[in-house]
Each structure stands twice: as C-alpha cells, then as structure tokens.
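Assemble and predict.
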Amino acid sequence: MTIERIWTASLLVIGDEILSGRTQDRNVSPIATWLNVQGIRLAEVRVVPDDSERIGEAVKALRDRYDYLFTTGGIGPTHDDITVDAIAAALGVPVVVHPRARAALEAHYAGRGGVTEARLRMARVPEGADLIENPASGAPGIRVGNIFILAGIPQVAAMMLEALSGTLEGGRPLLSSTVGCWAPESEVAELLADTERSHPGCQIGSYPFFREGRGGANFVIRSPDAARLEACRADLVERLEAEGRAVVAEGI
Amino acid sequence: MTIERIWTASLLVIGDEILSGRTQDRNVSPIATWLNVQGIRLAEVRVVPDDSERIGEAVKALRDRYDYLFTTGGIGPTHDDITVDAIAAALGVPVVVHPRARAALEAHYAGRGGVTEARLRMARVPEGADLIENPASGAPGIRVGNIFILAGIPQVAAMMLEALSGTLEGGRPLLSSTVGCWAPESEVAELLADTERSHPGCQIGSYPFFREGRGGANFVIRSPDAARLEACRADLVERLEAEGRAVVAEGI
C-alpha cells in the first residue's frame, strides 16, 4: 500500500471591503472548486485588511504550511493596492517592473491614454516572479515561488485561474456525493456516525436546513476514491430507507 | 488629545463545506456589519476544516490577539459537529451539559420525540460557558470568555447576534461614505492618493468594476469621525468634478 500524497493550498483574501461587511466575498467558493479539480485541497482561508504587516505575516505562515498559496485583491493601480509590495517585503526581495507586464499594459492602453505612472503600478512584481497572463485586462496575475497573486474582481480572478488550469501538480480530486433527507438531522445522527465508521476513507458531513416549514438535511459524502464513495452512498441510502426516511438521491 | 481605544474581533468559520467550494459563506458579511454597529472592527477571518487540532490552534491564536472571537458552524447534533469539544480542549476545560440548555432542548422537543442522545449533544458546552439564547431552535449559542460560538446556518447565527446586540463593549463605529465615478481608477489614482493624504483619519478604498462596456469605480471613504468623513467626501467630489469626471454621489 502506498501512502497517497495530498496536495494542499491556502487562500489569503486581502480586503478591507470584505472585513467591513460592505462586499460579499465571491472568490473563495470558485477557487476552492477549481483547486479540487486540480487535485489540490483548499485547507485554510484567511481574510486580512489592506495592511502590509498583516499581509506579510499571513503570507509567511501560509506559504510554508501548504503546497500553494493563492491571494486575491490589492493588485490594481491605486494607493490602496499594496499586495505586491507587501509580499515582496515578506519574501525579502525588491519590487521590479516586469518587462512583459509593461509591454502588455502598453498594448492594452494604446489609444486609451497610454501607460501612466498609476497604470505602471500594475506591472510591478516581486523580483523573480512570473506572470499569469489573462485576456481580461492589461494587468496580469503574478506567480512567485509557490505564491499565486490574483485579482480581487471575481471575473478577472477566474480568468487567471483558467490560465493556470492543468499547470499545478496535484493528487486525486476529492469526490463528493450528496444524499438529501426530509428528517431533522438529530433523528439520524447515530445512523450517520455508524455509516461513516463502516466506510474508511469516506467522510460524511451533515448540513441541515428548514424549508417550507419542514426540517431536512443534506448529507455530503467525500472521498478521493470513487468506488468507496459509491459504496458509502448506497449504504447510507439503504440505512435511511430501512428506517422509513424520505430520501432524495441527489440531495435536496 | 486622548488615544481612542479600537475594539477588534476575529471570526473563525468552521466548515469543510466552505473549503470544498460546495457552500458559499453567508456569515462573514452580516457578522462584519453587525460588529461595526457594536463599535467593533472585524480584523481577521479564518476558515478551517472540521478538524479539532486546526480549530484549537486557530482559537488559541485569535482569542489572544483580538478582543473578541466569534465562531460559526459545527454545533449541531451530528458526529461532524466538533466545535464545542475542540474549543473546550483548546481552553483546557472539560465539556459539560449546561442545565438551562438541556431544559431548552426538552421544551423545544416536547412532542417531537423528546431529547435523544444526539439532541443532547447540542446542550454540551465548555465548562464555565454561558448561553446565547435564541428563539430559532432549541440549541443556544455559547459564550465562553471572549469567545462566542454561533450556529453555521446564517438565519440562526443572525438571531444569536440579535440576542447579543448591545451587550458587548465597543468603541465608535467606523463610518463610510461611497462616491461613484465613471472613470477607470487608473486615471484618478493620484487624485485619490492626494485626497487621502489631505484628510488624516480617513481612508479611501477604490473598488473598480466594468459594467455595460464602461469602466468605473466606487471610492469608499472610511473614518470613525462623521465630520472628517463628510469633509473628505466633499473634497473628493470637488476634485473629481474639477477634472470633469462624472460623479455619482451615493456610489454606482
């Protein structure tokens, strides 16, 4: 038996606007989903303010602990965009203008006023960094070591991920299967725990809801192994039906 | 001149379902907004998996660093609800059944099958904890020291917050004012930085968007001082209009 290597990532969301409550984060869920397709598990998320020290501290902690670190936010042209400087400082390297990023900005802003000093900020990278090109804007994402610096605007971040698809080493994706049940989870808690114990390599999460006056729950089974996942799912459905519970095969 | 005490909080989101990408978090933004009304700044968010050690580690780091720590998720009746045990272990105290929580569950489940072993799990608290009562379910939230343990279901978490309103010591809320502008932020970057520099105690964040083929940005000014905020806002609008920019007073 070989021990399976599990690849992990963390995500650092940089943004006063998330912490103030003004903006609902829209990056965590799609990045988590994308990572899983690459065979990488999102193992931690942190949200910190637009503050160099706090960004640097989180970057140092997270890049050492996980295989990959992704960041979102703070790479635009304005004074509050400090991600590149904060990460360079954390890595102990200077900030330089990347020649290809500069060329991309020049192409993008040709006929739109050209590359101003503010726009040139978007070509600055920590020394030694590579670009994550994307068609959405002149400003590319940045890769430096195991750190991937993405835009905060979800549509732009998504295009940067698209450009990275298939380029990162990963393992087997975590598969999942959902079983819905019109029963309060407290009535099937023991059944769930017993089922999980009978299926090593599978985890069952229980996510209750109340809808139209009725209580129910979705049970999400997760495993990297498709056969084990299916065996656990079938067993769970059988046990629930044996108790006379109303089961919805694909979740509710 | 007195130095103003700033009260801070952190939020620990406990949930494999967030990290897998399956579920979009719906607690961070309302909790951030609620905290600000209490005069408390949300200074950090972490999302960790349903894993005792990872929860305990984050709890220890965050409760020492900030005035308050809130957690969401993992306090239901099923085997994957391990928040109470993980926090008690981190604090080095045993888990006990809280008599008033037990009584609340008995009242809630009278005529609905009574308090089973699974349901009684929801009356378990770290020793020395108080309850955060709420009308939504038999299961209360939990306060232990500066840690507030809330449900993961947003509607239930919101009712627990409602019960806590006005009970936590805080300072002045951070006020904000938004100015929208139909200009790419890169064209007004210097203007923004100059305006911020002219108004100590105010911060200006720039949040770009692309809509209907046009680029624009919202500039969010933040300050705990209403007079300074208004002076900064008025100055920003004047500077933008002096450049002939199309300004939308309440943001776009």
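Chain A touches chain B through 65 residues (CB under 8 Å).
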